[in-house]
Design brief:
The structure holds two protein chains of two kinds.
Chain A lengths: L11 H12 L3 H23 L2 H18 L9 H19 L21 H20 L2 H11 L5 H8 L3 H19 L11
Chain B lengths: L5 H9 L5 H13 L1 H16 L10 H23 L4 H25 L3 H8 L16 E6 L7 E6 L3 E6 L4 H12 L5 H15 L8 H13 L3 H12 L5 H13 L3 H17 L4 H12 L5 H13 L3
Antiparallel strand pairs in B: 1-2, 2-3
Classes of the chains: A mainly alpha, B mainly alpha.
Amino acid sequence: MPIGSEPGRGGRAEDRALLERVRRGDTEGAAELFERYAPALLRFTGRMLSDRSLAEEVTQEVFVKVITRASQYDGRAEVASWLFAIAANACRDRRRRDRRAPVVPIDALPEPAARGEGVEHALIDREKRDAVRRALADLSEEQREALVLARYHGLPYAEIASILGISVGAVKTRIFRAVETLKARFSEGATSWNAAN
Amino acid sequence: MECRELNERLVDRLTGQIRPEAEEELALHLAACAGCAAQAPALERAWEFLGEDSGLDATPEFRRRSRLLIEEEMLRMRVREFRPKPRALRWVAQAAAILVAAGIGYFAASRRVPLAAAAVSRATAASPLPDFESNPRLSNLSYQPVTPDGRVGIGFDVTTRHTVEGSPSDPEVARLLAYLLSRNTENSGEKSRAIELVQQHYGAGVASASPDIVNALTSTLRKDPNPGVRKKAADALSSMRMTPEIRSAFLEALHGDRNPAVRLVAIESLAAAAKESPADPKTIQSLRERAFDPSENGFVRARAASALKTMEF
C-alpha cells in the first residue's frame, strides 16, 4: 500500500471534533470515529497479535478506552497517533497477559477465499501472504511495531516516535533492523516467499 | 555517502522520508559502487514483498458487534450519572432527618409553642391556590430552593401572581406539585424541575409521598413523551418507598419503555426493593425476560441478570 494512503486517516480538525463529540456522550460521534479508524487499527492489531479474534477484541478494547478516556486527550498528539498509541499499548498488554497466545498462529488468521483468478493463483497468493505474516511474527515486538506503522500505515518517523514513546533515532534503528532481517529472509531464490516457509 | 549507510538511506527512501540531497547522494553512490548496487534490490524487494499481505478486513459482523459495544459503553458513561442514590446514603439521610426532627420537637416543646401555631408556621400559603378543577394554565413558574427545614416555594401566574410556600408533604403544596406534574405539561423543563423538587423532599424516604404525587409520577413515567422527564420520574419514584403502584409502573417501564436508561432505573429499583422483601413472581419473571432477550440492550441485560443473582427466590 503506498505511503500515506492508509484509509481511516481523517482530517485533524475533524478527528478532534469527533473526539469532542465522544467526550460529550454523543454515540453517533463515537460510531463515526470507529468507522473512520477501526479498519486501520484492526490491521495494526492483527499484525501485532497474529490472531483475528484477539485483534478484534483488542481493537474493541481500544475504542472502549477512547470513550472512557476521551476527556484525558490533551491535544498534543494527533488523534490518530493517540489511537495507535492506545492500540500499541493494548497489544503489548495483551501479549504479556496472555502468554498462551502463540506468536505465529497463521491458521488463526482465516481469510475469505481468493476471488476469480483460479485456485492455483489463489494458493500462491495465500502462500505469499502467510510467508509475510510468518516473517513479521518472527520479528521482535519493538521492530514489528515500528515497521508496521511505517510500512502499512505510512506514518512518518516523528509520529511513530510519539506513538511508541521513543526517539526518532530509535524508530529508524528498529525499522532498519527489521528490514535487514526481512531482506535476509526474502532474498534467497526466485520464489522468494518460499524462503520464509 | 559510505557503504555502511546504504540500508538506512534505502529505508528512508522506501518510507518516503529521504531528504533530496541524501537521495542524490544515494543515487550517485549506487552508480559508483557495484556491491551496494547489487544489494539494494534485495532490500527493496523485501519491502515490496511485505505488501503481499493486505491485512485483516473489518467484517460486517465485527462492525455490528463493535457498534453495539460502543453504544453500550456510551450508555454506561451516561448511566453513571443517573444511578439512584446508594442505599447506605439513604440510611444516613434518614437517620439525620430523624435527629433533626427530634431536635425540632424538643425545641418546640421546650418553648411551649402551641401545636396548632407550629403547624401553621410550617405550611403557610402566601396566597390561596387557584381552582384546579378548571384546569388553569400556570405560567411564569418559579421555584425557590429547598430550605434546610425542607420547605419549598413555588410561584406562578394564573390571572394574578401566586406564591405557595411550605413542605411538599403539606396538602396544598402536594396538590400543587401533583397538578404541575400531571397536567401542567407544556414545558418539559418546568415539569423536570417539579420532579426534582419532589425527589429532593422524598429522596430520603422519610415522608410518605402523597398519593396524588405518586400517581402523577407513575403517570409521567408511563406516558410522558420526553425520555429525560420519564427518567427523572423513575429516579424520583426509586427514591420513595416501594408500593404496589410504583412496582407496577416500574414493571411496565421495564417491558415497554423505549429508553434503556429508564429501563435500567426500573431494574435498579426493583432489585433494591427485593433486598428488603422477597421479590414477587412478576418482578422475577420480568427481570428474567430482560436478561434473556437477545434484542435487549447488552447493559440492560447484564444488569437484569446481576439483579436476579442477588435476589432471594
